[in-house]
């Protein structure tokens, strides 16, 4: 009997221990209820947007997730001490948090440092850890520095992760907030609308204090400035995802066990450059870093006809034939931005007919941050084909094919207007066979075939008489 009791006790203890380990650490929201939350974005107040998005985020949390709520600025105007613990971190009711947020009336100031102090002190008093997520649409408006508060708390050994969401803030207002998030082992997120707020809260609520500490940072730049980029890390040579993040124009972090990985990075703004993949290695007990530049190279494409600027279409292809760029030149030099690599450029001259109105410029090497000049000069001449009967202009169909291959390259009608009879054809230099056939009944059966030679930069005229 003692043996059975002992076994049951041991089993009960192991189940209890497992349940405790399985329950996630609390998430504590610090919610902005300052007067500026009545400001509008896309026709709705920031208060409405934030409360709706936060309610959705809370609903998506695990059932066994404890959720607390600290609010500031909701009771008194101008009071820097207006900070309240509205929902304790021992709470496991999602409805309690959602109802509390909906009922908040924004009024006051933005005491970020004091709000963070209240939240962090609650963890110290309970000797527990938590993920703190601060949502603010403004900067500190009282006598405090949230970065100093968080830095000191970490020095004192308080265990927490702090994420900060700047809702509709300007870049110039984020320095102190980024400092605090970094000191709190978390991230600073920028959200400019409801969709952006939903995205960052979805990520912030999954990047919790229970996760291993991030040990690999990624910074993405273009032309020397940070860009928002999406990151996915997979085991080297596989599609097995290990971790992921976004940079939000700042440093993104992931956790990688020791080993070799492929890091897939795609820019989300400011560039037409496709993403890239780099090989990295995570080393035990070391913080890794990778700066990724999306600086591409450039092709300065110039298209000419008889040494003058000419409108052309262009396609830039990889060595495997994949089209990765291109544009119309409109007769002026055209900059095409690409990933570094070797490309073929297909250019086609507009208006020019013949066998040489398309050309492929092969093996163009593009290097990062450099511009390579590429040009092609087409050649053409003019053939003027007209049809008359005495002094009367005759409507006729004109068909032109090359003498060399017999391929039809141009055709049109002369009609009976001085503006189209003779009809102008712009052709590559060469010898052509021209067939002219009358259209009107009074000239039924009238036709003529002849040969002309078109020379570069010259005009040849042929008037047929029926």
From TrEMBL:
Query: Does the record's keyword annotation contain RNA-binding?
Result: no
| Record InterPro entries | VWF_A, vWFA_dom_sf
Q: Which keywords does this chain's UniProt record carry?
A: Signal
What does the record list as coiled-coil region(s)?
none
Where does the secretion signal sit in this chain? 1-19
Q: Which residues form the VWFA domain?
A: 26-204
Full protein name: VWA domain-containing protein
Q: Which organism is it from?
A: Flavivirga spongiicola
Lineage per the UniProt record: Bacteria, Pseudomonadati, Bacteroidota, Flavobacteriia, Flavobacteriales
